[in-house]
Structures are given as structure tokens and as C-alpha cells.
Amino acid sequence: MNAPEPLPTTAVVIPVYNRGDALAKTLAGLAVQDYPAELMSVVVADDGSEDDIESIVAATDADFDIVYARQTRDGFGAGRARNLGATHSSSDVIVFLDSDGLTEPTFVRGHAGHHTGAEERVVIGGRVHIEARAITVEAIRHGVDWASSETTGHDDFRTLLARRTGGFTSTDEGYRAFVSSNVSMSRSLFEKVGGFDPRFRWWGSEDSEFGWRLWQAGARFVDDSGVRIFHQTDTDTAGGQVGRQRARELNAGLMSSLVPQKFYRKQMPDPIPEVPKFTVIVHDVPATAPREIWRSLVGQTLPDFNVIFVAEPQEHDPFAGASVGDPRVDFADSVSSAVEASTGEYLVFLGGFTAVSLTFLQNLRKRLDSRPVATSLSCGYWVHSDGSTYGRVEDVELVDSEWGEELPQMLAVRRRELILRLNRGFEVPAALDDLRHGQPHLHTRQALVALPGVMRADRPDPFVYGKGIAKQFWDELQLGPSQAVKASLKVAKQRLRPPSVPAPQKGEERIAGPPGIRYVGWVGKGNLGDEAMLDATRQLMSWGEINTRGEAGRLLLLGGGTLINRNQYLGWLQERDSPRIERAVFGTGVASTSYWGVTEDSSEWLRWLQTCAYVGLRGPRSAETLQRWGFKGPLEVCGDPALALTAPGAVRKPGSVVISPAWTDGQLWGESDIDVYRSLAQAAARWQKEGREITFLACHPTDDRPILMIRDMMERNDTSYVAGYLDVQGSLEVLAAADFVVGERLHACVLAAATSRPFIAVEYRPKLMDFSESVGMSDYVVRTDALEPDHLLELGSQLGEAAPARMLSAVEEYRERLRSGAETIRAAVEA
For residue 182, what are the β-bridge partners? Predict the structure, then answer.
């Protein structure tokens, strides 16, 4: 029979600033612990108190060693005091306890028991808030009935966090449980991670930041609410909730710089953060790779990274020499050394022969941040030699094997998950393989990375990511035959468009002819609404030559769509901005902050918007958001640009109803696409029984799936289908023929209004209300989480066959505003 592990020596470290009475009670509780006195010690670390703390410590009657240490007061110094206390003990285990924490006799034993033979554990104890004024030192030493203590009713947030994270074992926020009033760890772990950061000068946050580093180091957080303290709330000196909130605000900048996890870093900090979101580890590095990979990373829509090249720096001069002053660039002699030196929340292993798209890191962040339980992410590859795309998981793994390297050409992992495996004895390649083939692993077929060939081939010089029209076809082909057919039609349409005149590059003299307009929007994606807005803008600004690629000639134009507060468009605008060109906003929507949050730095948007010659927004809610942000310049609600389109000669077909559903992958009010489709199917079936003809309009290729699902749910399948994403004008004619339109897709509603047809907006996101309010149709908006067939039927009956006069009047008003806005922009460009 194996002998039990010996109990570890344990030190309780207590930071203190004044509050001598509370400390005396805390020390009294420790004095009656049932842990062996020869294995226990207490260190009181005084953060420059005015109270005579040393006398209180000296007067404590205890069998264990008790040490007093003092530091000079320099702002809030609890973190520094804890570090000081840790240096005054050599115990195996350190328990951190605040000076207002009362303990039961089993407290130290409860913590120490978790650390027997387990150096990587962090024990998170429980906390009960009580009023302790009536509890005396003498009562504590003789035993208090803690169960009968008067609690304040304040719940400990860690209780909820523990439940939602499976005891801090799941998702990416377990580190937030590290509140240093009651935690413990091995001394070796404390020293390995580096202790508390001394730079915090305001109450709080220093423990959350240290908890993040422990989490990233692979520490296993243990939830033991039974090892509890009783917090003396009546001794609070942090200023209550108001004072704590103010302290959090003052610490926010430092926290955002040091903790890249989404709870603290909502967007890319400015200036560059100390700890990056991503550490990119580049292996198998050819001669030209560092310079080109660095340039591609610097140009990312999310420049929140550092990069470590696994190579000898002297072999990569002059780049290595030029990078010595940039903390974002480093070299390592091995992959394991690079992992050890990494600090990012996510590690991206990237082959040195690759090239990455401009949205590479943004795509990785979006996918990993939205799936906090995911451990790793792989993506498709685009191959330069033949223009093909390998999107399926098995194809990507085949390409990796053909390259003959131990590491994949691209794999993003959570650093913590990798470290956990390394701590179990895995080598890096085996750990990555385990993550890649384990659950939950994410994979996107989107080709975010380019390779020179399917098998190892020389890296072209230069080598940048890029795909032409033909390559788009091959990209879609990998997703299946039906996608390939749609892709071929899309490619054909692109080829039939009249060629555009390239915009003059920066620094070139303006050439004769129409001014070049660089249109920024979500175009070329096979989406009916975005192509309709572009077509309308071309009609309204026929005086210019609109391009969707390259640099701006005379005008940088933010086009229609929900583009403000949506992550990437501001970056695109800033990249192409210049004092030599004009800029304007035309019919743009602002993403609802109540739904999406603030996804970008609003001050940067305001700065750019203030430079525009014209700011025209889609709807009143978009205008309200900008004004709430503090926009002071002139703006106009000019309406959605697609309202300028018409369907001349279209013939209305009495009894026709057009339905346009959307595939959102669960990103909608109510989070259930299927519930929406079921309601639409039931309403459509009843309209059929009334003798109406049902036509389904797909505004995007992904809408084909819900249309098939809805038709399968109906008793009769004698419905019509229109691939609206292939033909803007044809879609207008279909909508113009309807009695009314039911649109989950925003632009089914917009184009219905443009053709004077009434609509019912199925609001899956707030942008539908933004538009509907703009044309006086807010009474005909139904949120997807409240969608019922009877309600749709009732609204359809109310609409009848004629559009409300207020909608027709609003559309005409917006057409005039769009024409006037286009002329205002023209005058600014030609000035």
C-alpha cells in the first residue's frame, strides 16, 4: 500500500493597507486552523499603512510563524504587496487571502490538500459576504457559528461562472474566477508565471491579469467553494460600487493591453498592445519569406499580432537586422522555443512558403472568439500553380502531408490548449495533431492561405495572396457541383459587365475623362442587395467611373449596406484614404450596437466621417447611433441606394406573393432558422389555399437551402423559384408583379418598396427595422423570435394589394435625396 503524500508547507500571504481591526479578526481566524503549525506560516505584507499594523501582527497569539513585511505606499499596491509577501516565505504552497477575509478552521487544510503532487493547480475558494461588526476577535478564537452569520445577500459572480464553465474547465473565461481574496497555488507556479504585475496603481484588475497569465500557462483552475472565506463587507475602503467601477475604468487601458481575450479587448487597442491577440509562429522559412510575411501581417484588417520566425536571424538579413527594434518580431531556434516565447491568446502555425489574405487574422479571430469552446481552427488552401482551392478537411490534410513537414501549413490553436498538452508530455507536432483531430476543432473551407503548389515548390518572389475570376470558379467547385453551377453563372455575369477604367494611382496626374470612384462595399459576393445598391449608385453617379478594386482616383465612396460598426470597412477606407481625394458616405447603414455591440473604435469612425463631403445614411436608427457616438457634422438620411431602381414595364400578377427567406446559421433573433422557416411554410400553405401563387426569391446562394426546406414543409410544392442573386433587373420585375412581399432578406423589402409594392419585413436583425422605419412601414415588421403564421396572414390582409401612401411618399422623397446627394458629392469631387 502506497504511503500518502506528505502535507505541503503552506504560507498564507495577506496584503494590508490600514483596516487594522479587520486584519486582527482575520489573523484570529488563522490562529485556530487545524493545519499542523510547523507546516504553516503567515506573511502580512503592509502596503505603507498609516495604522500601526506591525503591532497588530506582533500581538497575534499563534503557534505558527508570522512575518511582517512593509513597502512604501505608491498608489494601490496590493499586487506588489502580495509579491513582497511571497518573497518572505519558502513554503511549497502560497494561499492569498485579503485582510478582510474571515476563515473557518479547515481553511488552510482545504487549500493545501489540492496541491499534494499537483504543481499546476490554482484553487479558487468560495466567498460569502457578511456584516462582521458584531463579531469579535475573542469570538473567532473561541469558535463562531458561521452558518448563522448575517449575509449581505450579494452573490459571488464566480458561483455563476463556475456553473456555466463546468467548474472553470470549459470555454475561454475561466481565468476570470481568479479573485485573489481566496486563491492558492504552488510556489513554483507562482514564480514560473511571474507573480502580480506591479504596474497596476488602482483598485482591482491586477488579480484578473495574473489569472490570465496563469490560465495561458496551462494552470488547472479548481473550483472548491467549500474552502470559503467570510468577507467583512462593512470594512470596504474601495468606495463601494461607484469607486470600484471608477477604478476599473482607470485600469481598462492596461488590462486591454495585457489581456487580449475578448472580455477585456473589445477591439484592437491603440497604441499597439503589449500582449497580442495572435502569435504567428512561422516555420520552414525560405530566404524571402520573413519580409513578405511581415508585410502581409502588417496589412491585416486586424493587426493584433506578433510573429516569431523559427530560423537563425543572420540567415535572413537585411530583414532580421531591420526588425531588431520592433518588439513584434522575433526569431527562435526551434518550434518549442517559439511556443515558450509566445504570449498571444491564439498561436498560428504558418509555413514559410505561404501567403495569407488581408483578412486572415480577422477571420481567425471571428471564428475562434465566437466559439469559446473550440480548441483549434484550420482553413482551406488556395494553390498558386493551378488556381485551385482545397477546402475540405481531408483535402487540406492531404496537401499538408504532400508538403512533407511535421507541422501543418496553417493551424490556429488556443495557446492554453497547446500548453496543456505539452505539460502532459506531448511534443509540439503531436500536440497539434491531437488538437486538429480532437473535439471541438473548427474548420472553414474558406481559403485564407495560399501555397505555391500542392506539393513542395519554390516560393514565387514576390508571393502574395490573390484570386482572379477563374479562380473563384475553382474555389466554389470544391464546395460541390451545385455551388459550381452557381459560380459559373456568377463568373459569366462578371465577364459580361462592361470593363471599367482603372483609377489613377496615388501620385499620378489626373487624366481626362470621368473621375475615378473607388466604391467600398460588400460586392462581388453574389448577394442581390449589394449588387442592386452598386447598380443604383452607378446610375446616380453616372458622371463618374465606379470601380470596386484598386485605389481611389478622385473619390473614396463608402457605399450601401450595413458597413459602419462592422469590423473591416473602416480599415479598408483608412488604407485607401489620401488628402488628394474626396470621400463620402452614400446610403450606408450603422450596425446596431444593441445587437452587435461596438465592434470598432467609434472615435476612429467619427474622425473619418468628419472628413467626408457628404454623409448619407440608410435609416433613422443609423443616424441616431452616429449622433449618440458624438458625430457633430452634417448628415442626412438619404435612404437605401437601391430605392433609386425601377422596373419599367413590369406587370402586376394579382394573387401573387413573393417570399424571400434568409439562411443566418442561427445568428438571428430567437437563434432558430428552422422556427422561422416553419412559420413561413405554414403561412405560405394557407395563402395557397386562398388561391394565391407563391414565388420564392433567393437573394443569396445560401438562401436556396431554406427555400427547399420551406417547400418540403408545405403540403403542395407547386411554387415558383427565382435565383434573384443572378439578375437584379429580373428580381425587380418579380417583386413588382406581387400583391405583397414577405422579406427576411432586407433587400427583398427594399426592392419591393422601389417597385411600389408593400412588404412585411421579417426582422432577423435590427437593420430591417432601420429601413422599414425610414419608409413608414414599421407596423409591418415582425421579429423572428415572435413570428407566427396567423400574424403574417393578418398583416397580409391589412396590406391588400396597394402599398400604403406613406411608403410611396417616402420612397419618392428618398429618390430625390439620393439624386441630390449624388450631385452634392459630384460638386465636391469636381471643385
Answer: 97
Cell numbers 488602482: residue: 202
Q: At a CB cut-off of 8 Å and minimum separation 6, what does 104 contact? A: 29, 146, 228
User: In 180-339, which ranges are E strands?
Assistant: 182-186, 220-232, 278-283, 305-310, 329-332
d(CA 178, CA 15): 16
The pLDDT tens digits for 133-170 are 888 899 998 888 776 666 665 667 777 677 656 678 76
Cβ atoms < 10 Å from Cβ of 794 = 11
Q: How far apart are CA 239 and CA 465, in angstroms?
A: 54
Q: What is the pLDDT of residues 471-522, one digit of tens each?
A: 444 444 444 444 444 444 444 444 434 434 334 433 334 445 799 999 999 9
Closest listed residue to residue 22, CA positions, set 51, 42, 48:
51
Least Cα distance to 41 among 105, 85, 102 occurs for: 85
Cα distance between residue 49 and residue 22, in whole Å: 13
How far apart CA 482 and CA 168 sit, in angstroms, is 44
Among 140, 148, 182, residue whose Cα is nearest residue 29: 140
Distance CA 307, CA 149 (A): 54
Long-range contacts of 322-328 (CB under 8 A, 24+ apart): 323/290, 323/294, 328/272, 328/276
Contact 183, 221 (CB under 8 A): no
205 closest CA partner among 238, 172, 233: 238
User: What was the pLDDT predicted at 716?
Assistant: 82
Q: Does residue 67 contact residue 42 with C-beta atoms inside 8 Å?
A: yes
Q: Concatenate the DSSP letters of all residues of 95-158 into one string.
A: EEE-TTEEE-TTHHHHHHHHTTT-TTEEEEEEEEEE--TT--HHHHHH---GGGS-B--PPPHH
612: nearest Cα among 641, 573, 638, 639: 573
595 close to 768: Cβ distance less than 8 angstroms: no
pTM above 0.70, yes or no: no
End-to-end CA distance of the chain: 93
Rounded to 5°, angle at Cα 586 from 583 and 589: 120
Buried b (16+ CB within 10 A) or exposed e, 163-202: eebebbeeebbbbbbbbbbbbbbbbebbebbebbbeebbb
How many angstroms separate the CA atoms of 506 and 26, rounded? 69
Name the residue type at position 57.
V
Q: Where is pLDDT greater, at 450 or 233?
A: 450
Q: Cβ contacts of residue 794 below 8 Å, gap of 6+?
A: none
pLDDT in tens, 246-265: 888 888 899 999 999 988 99
